[in-house]
Amino acid sequence: MKRITDKIDSGFQSSSGVTSEWKSFVTKFRNDLGKELDKVGAENYTMSRGHFYVSGFFQLGEQWYYFSISDVRFFPDKRMLIRTADHPKDYTGGRNEYVNIETNMFLKYFHRPTTVEVLESDYTEHLESKVQHLKAENERLQSQINKPNEPDFDQIGENALNQAVRYIQNSIGEDSGDFASTWDFDEVEKVLTDYAKNNYYYLNYK
C-alpha cells in the first residue's frame, strides 16, 4: 500500500472532470485494497470511483462493510473510513471507524481487541505517553500560577475539562466514541482534571 499512501502525500491535480492521474490512482487502489481484503477472506468486494473520492462494500462472513476515503484534494488522510452495513447499498450503517491505509491493514483491523479490558492494554502505550506529557505541562503551569482564593472545580465548568479531553484525544487521534472507553482509567481522568484546573488558573490568575 506504500504506493497509495505516497501518492496521497504527493497530492492530486484538481479538475472539474476526471483526470488520468485520478483514474490511474483508483485502479491501483482498487487492486491493492483487493489484495489486502483477500488476506482476511473478504468477498463481494466493490469499489466506486467518485469525484476524487472512492467508496465501496465488501463482505466478511455474514457481515457487510462500507468503506470510503474523502476528497483526496482537500483531505489527504492516509486512513480509510470503515463501518458495518446491513447490505451492499447501506450508506448509513454502524459507527464510523478508521483503519490506516497500510500493508496488512485489514489483518490488523479485524484482529484488534474489542473488549474494554483488552482495549485498555491496546491503548496503554499511547496513553502513558500523553499522560506523562500532561503531567509535565501541569508542573509548568503550576509554577506560573498565582492563585488568590482557589475556586471549586465545579465553578470552572466543563469547558476547561473538555479542552483537556480534546487535547489528548487529538494527540492520540481516536474517535470520541473509542476515546470514551479510556475514561475507565483513574489516572488518566485525574491527570486530565488536573490539567484542566491548572490551565484555568494559568489563564485567569497568572
- What kind of sheet is the major sheet? 5 strands, antiparallel
Span between N and C termini? 50 Å
Strand content: 15-25%
Mean pLDDT across residues: 76
Q: How many separate domains make up the residues?
A: 2
Low-pLDDT regions: 114-119, 172-184
Order of helices and strands: HHEEEEEHHHHHH
Give me the secondary-structure category: alpha+beta
Number of E-type strands: 5
Name the overall outline: extended
Q: What would you report as the Rg, rounded to the nearest angstrom?
A: 22 Å
Fraction of residues in helix: 40-55%
How many helices does DSSP assign?
8
Major sheet: arrangement of strands: 1-2-3-4-5
How would you describe what is shown here?
The protein has 206 residues and is α+β, with helices and mostly antiparallel strands. It folds into 2 domains: 2-110, no CATH class; 116-205, no CATH class. It is 51% helix and 16% strand. It has 8 helices and 5 strands. The chain has helices at residues 2-10, 20-38, 105-110, 116-143, 153-156, 158-172, 176-179, 186-205; strands at residues 43-49, 54-60, 63-69, 79-85, 97-100. It has a 5-stranded antiparallel β-sheet with strand order 1-2-3-4-5. The longest helix has 28 residues, at 116-143. The model is unreliable at 114-119 and 172-184 (pLDDT under 50).
